Amino acid sequence: MSIESFLRVEKSSHIYFEKIEKANSSTAIIFLHGLCGSRRQWHKQYRGLSKKYSLYFIDLLGFGFSAKPNIQYTLSTHVEALHTFIQKEVKEKSIILVGHSFGTIVALGYLQKYPKQVKKTFLLSLPYFLSSEEAMSHLKANYRPQYFVVDSWYLKLTCKVWCHYGGPITRKIMPYIYKNLPKEVAHDGLLHTYNSYITSLYNVVYKQDITSLLTKNISQKIYLFHANNDKLAPFSNIQNLSKKYNLPLHIVKDGTHDLPFEAKNDIFKLLYEFS
After folding, report:
1. How far is the C-alpha of 128 from the C-alpha of 46, rounded, in Å?
2. Closest Cα to residue 55, out of 25, 81, 34, 35?
3. Pseudo-torsion of CA 10, 11, 14, 16, nearest 10°?
4. Which residues contact 152 (CB under 8 A, 6 or more apart)?
5. Is 274 exposed, middle or buried (0-12, 13-18, 19+ CB in 10 A)?
6. Reduced to 3 states, what is the DSSP secondary structure of residue 17?
7. DSSP state, 247?
8. pLDDT at position 275, please?
9. DSSP H/E element including 31
C-alpha cells in the first residue's frame, strides 16, 4: 500500500509506531514528536538507549502514518489516543515520556491523567505561554511564514496543495527548504491534514492552560530541557515556571527550538543515566 492510499483510507484510532525491545526491561521510553513532526525525528539518534530501555517511537494521532480522523483534535483527544496505544502495545510496567514542543503538552496531559504508570517526563522546548493571546502573537511574530500559525483560507489552500495534491513531489522538495532538519524529518512534515494540524495548534498549543496540568502529585516527575535562545517557546516563561513549581531545568546555551537534534548528546546522556 502506498503512503497516499494508507493516509486516505485509515479512519480508526490507530497509532503508527516503531519499537526496539529490550529483553527483561521493566521500563519503556515513549517519544512524542512536535507539531508536524513524526517518529523519525527520534529514532536514529536515540536507538542506543535500547541497551537499557525498550523504546517506542510513535506518530501522534493526525500526523505521520497514524490515522487522521476528521475530528476536533484536543489535548484529551491526543491523550486518549496515546492511552489506548499504551494499554494495547506497551508491556513494560513503567514508562518515561519524552516530548518535544507540542509533544510536551501531550506528555503533560497524559501524566496529569494517568500518573501512576509514568516514571518521569522529560519536556524539551515546552511552549508555555501566559495566555492564548500571548501564544498567538508570539508565534506570529517569530514563525516564518507567519501565516502558517494562523487559521486562514490561504493557509488551508497552501496545506491542501502541499500536503494533499503535492504528494511525493512536494515531500522530496521539503529537505531542501528546511536544510536544518534531517531529510526524513523534513519529508514527514507534510504527513498531516489541515484539520489535524490547525485544531491541534489552536486547542493544544494556543488554548491549553499548562499550569492547570501541574498538580502537586506530578511535579516531581517533570524535568524541563530548554534552550536560552528559543524563539518559539520563550525561555523567560520557562524560567519562571521552573521557579514557581520547583521543576528542574537543564539550560542549553545558544540552542534553538530544535533540541532533539541540537542537544541529542546531552539528552541521550540524561536519559541513559536516569534510573
Report:
1. 25
2. 25
3. 30
4. none
5. middle
6. strand
7. -
8. 66
9. strand 27-32
Pairing of strands 222-227, 249-252: parallel
Task: Check residue 1 and report its DSSP letter.
Answer: -
Looking at the DSSP bridge assignments, the partners of residue 118 are 95
CA distances from 80 to 56, 73, 241 (A): 17, 11, 26
* Calpha distance 196→81 (Å, rounded): 13
**Cβ contacts of 4 within 8 Å, gap of 6 or more:** 167, 168
How confident is the model over 20-49, as pLDDT tens digits? 988 888 999 999 999 988 999 897 889 999
Q: pLDDT digits over 45-104, tens only? A: 899 999 999 999 999 999 999 999 999 999 999 999 999 999 999 988 899 999 999 999
pTM of the predicted model as reported, rounded to 2 decimal places: 0.90
Distance of alpha carbon 11 from alpha carbon 130, whole angstroms = 35
Tell me whether strands 94-100 and 27-32 are parallel, antiparallel or unpaired.
Answer: parallel
Residue 44 has a pLDDT of 81
State the Cα–Cα distance between residues 147 and 139, nearest whole angstrom. Answer: 10
167, burial (CB in 10 Å: exposed 0-12, middle 13-18, buried 19+): middle
Distance CA 54, CA 179 (A): 31
Which of 275, 273, 219 lies closest to 249, judged by CA?
Answer: 219
Residue 258 DSSP class: -
> Are 74 and 204 within 8 A, CB to CB?
yes
DSSP H helices in 10-74: none
Q: Which tens digit of pLDDT belongs to each residue from 106-161?
A: 999 999 999 999 999 999 999 999 999 999 999 999 887 776 788 887 778 877 77
